[in-house]
Amino acid sequence: MSDTQAHVPGRIMAAEMAEQPAVLRRILDEGAPKIREIAAEIAARNPRFVLLTARGTSDNAALYAKYLIEVLLGKPAGLTSMSTTTAYGAKPDLTDCLVITVSQSGGSPDLVASTKAARDAGAITLAVTNNPASPLAEVSEFHIDVLAGPEKALPATKTYTAELLALYLFVEGLRGGDGAAAKDLPELAAGVLARQAEVRALAERYRFAQRLVITSRGYGYPTAREAALKLMETTYIPASPFSGADLLHGPLAMVDNVSPVIAIVPDGKGGEALQPVLDRLRGRGADLVVIGQREQVDAASAGFALPAGVPEEVQAILEILPLQLLAYEVTIARGQDPDAPRALAKVTETH
Questions:
Q1: Which domain holds residue 32?
Q2: Are residues 152 and 18 part of one domain?
Q3: What are the residues facing 127 on neighbouring strands?
Q4: Higher pLDDT, 257 or 320
Q5: What is the reported pLDDT for 7?
Q6: Do 111 and 143 belong together in one domain?
Q7: 318 found inside a domain
Q8: CATH number for the domain including 97?
Q9: Domain SIS, which positions (predicted)?
Q10: Is residue 14's pLDDT more than 60?
Q11: 346 has catalytic annotation
């Protein structure tokens, strides 16, 4: 490889986005048996509730798992505040609690410390990482490897979708399911990623944007948060993610007839719950771009139609793909390098 090729802006991120169908296939073919085995062992211990611990992109994957656990298992689930144990020294009683820590690197000191504290407090601990040799994997009772392979671009792409699929298969395993809803995802993901030219055309809308609002509901809400994070860390455009319900409780006032809004509209109950929000946004004349089904896209200013017939609980794995591409394309259009956003490091060592 020449020096010129090595320094093409966005080359690494583009390659890692393109790997996602293969990563999803690897998880289904190689990772699923181990995930089912771990899930069965934990299910036999019947944890009464679940706590999820993560930072950054992995925090959005953890939020997705929270929806899965509450909807599919009917168990209460929450996102932890790590500082309660790492900074304040709180000692909660976590007997019969499952604590799932999600981390691409498994190296952040506060994740390791809070997981160790949870295990000392009686919790069943599970680490979900892309590094089975990480400190986090070592301090956890159980570990799931998301099998994404080395990720070199600073914006996480393939590790995020790998975390989503691994978490879905794990929750399915807890209830004795076979994860059949995920079987077509590798091929569907390849089809979505092949439509990059459509996303490049959408990106022109945001080349000079000063801010963005991104909204969704249900399983799509973690996608809204992850899309906002990707756009902010690559393009530097302030992007505010809102649950559709929260958007109606005040922030809608900042949306006017020139405000760019991206709505992720799941095909199912989440999309139905978002419909009143879409109606209000159209009523305010917002520049509304929809990521969803064809009929929703056609009713908006523009958008990207997702494959039909995908079960709602796994749609998030496809929804984020055009938004990753959008972050990439807008960044390139603005003359920046998405491989190396300013002031970011691959492993963020929070304490």
A1: 3-182
A2: yes
A3: 101, 143
A4: 320
A5: 72
A6: yes
A7: yes
A8: 3.40.50.10490
A9: 38-180, 202-341
A10: yes
A11: yes
Q: What is the pLDDT of residues 148-182, one digit of tens each?
A: 999 999 999 999 999 999 999 999 999 999 999 99
Say if CB 323 and CB 221 are below 8 A apart. Answer: no
Out of 144, 160, 182, pick the residue that ends a domain. 182
Question: Would 203 be classed as within a structural domain?
Answer: yes
The strand pairing partners of 290, in sequence order, are 263, 303
Q: Is residue 1 pLDDT above 70, yes or no? A: no
Q: CA triplet 279, 246, 219: central angle to 5 degrees?
A: 85
Q: Are residues 203 and 301 in the same domain?
A: yes
Tell me, what's the pLDDT at 348? 54
**E strand segments, 251-321:** 260-264, 287-292, 302-305
Kindly report, residue by residue over 291-331, the tens digit of the pLDDT.
Answer: 999 999 998 889 999 999 999 999 999 999 999 999 999 99
The DSSP bridge pattern shows strands 77-79 and 49-54 to be: parallel
In 3D space, the residue among 316, 265, 307, 341 whose CA is nearest the CA of residue 163 turns out to be: 316
Are 164 and 259 within one domain? no
- Return contacts of 190-196, CB within 8 angstroms, 24+ apart: 190/21, 191/307, 192/306, 192/307, 192/318, 192/321, 192/322, 193/17, 193/18, 193/20, 193/21, 193/321, 193/325, 195/304, 195/322, 196/325, 196/329
Among 91, 152, 183, 346, the one annotated catalytic: 346
Both tokens of residue 196?
Answer: 């990059």
Instruction: Please indicate, yes or no, whether residues 243 and 161 belong to a single structural domain of this protein.
Output: no
> Which of 231, 347, 337 minimizes the C-alpha distance to 12?
337
Indicate the number of domains in the chain. Answer: 2
Average pLDDT over residues 87-110: 91
